[in-house]
Amino acid sequence: MEAYGILVKKYMKKAYNSALFFTRDPNDAWDISQEGFLNAWKAIKRFNTKKAFFPWLYTIIKNESMKKFRREKKESKINHFYIPKVMLFLHSIIGT
């Protein structure tokens, strides 16, 4: 656990900047970088110790960023599709 804390301290800024590159949002970048470290911790047994840590972490952060993008895109499509219909329905009920 202590060794992992050292990795977090060493790579947090790079992880955050990588997430910021993908998201362009500081809050999302912070969330994604933390999620990336958490996912890396969960998958640490699959990490090849003969390779560098950061490229592996970068891939995890990139994947987390893409998941967030797909989620937001899906939510955006759903909202844009349903909101006008809901508004028309509500207007028909209240008679405006």
TrEMBL record:
Keyword hit for Coiled coil: no
- Phylogenetic placement of the source organism: unclassified sequences, metagenomes, ecological metagenomes
Q: Which GO terms describe its biological process?
A: DNA-templated transcription initiation
- Domain RNA polymerase sigma-70 region, first and last residues per copy: 7-74
* Name of the molecule in the record: RNA polymerase sigma-70 region 2 domain-containing protein
A Gene Ontology molecular function term for this protein is: sigma factor activity
Which Gene3D superfamilies does its entry note?
A: 1.10.1740.10
The entry's keywords? DNA-binding, Sigma factor, Transcription, Transcription regulation
The yes or no answer to whether the keyword Signal is present is no
